[in-house]
Amino acid sequence: xxxxxxxxxxxxxxxxxxxxxxxxxxxxxxxxxxxxxxxxxxxxxxxxxxxxxxxxxxxxxxxxxxxxxxxxxxxxxxxxxxxxxxxxxxxxxxxxxxxxxxxxxxxxxxxxxxx
Length: 115
Fold this sequence. Notes:
Helices cover 38% and strands 16% of the residues. With 115 residues, the chain is an alpha+beta fold. The protein has one domain (19-105).
């Protein structure tokens, strides 16, 4: 019992791991719904995908750049759902999840004070 108590409480005394700026940028990218799409697969299922974060500023659809070269940005698959509504709710849930992660980076917020 003492060992379990030690293991569960020892992490809280450690400094929390630092989150890299690249990771925060990725979360901000994923928190925007415009970076997501739904595609229908040949088997009738729907796949949610998000646009890979890239530095290519000329592409808007992820297919080709203005100069005619192939775009380096790719769509990464995330989940598969049976219905279009299910796929869209999965994207909404992901966007909300990453928005909360960004909000928590700001630190604790006061929810109630007592007098």
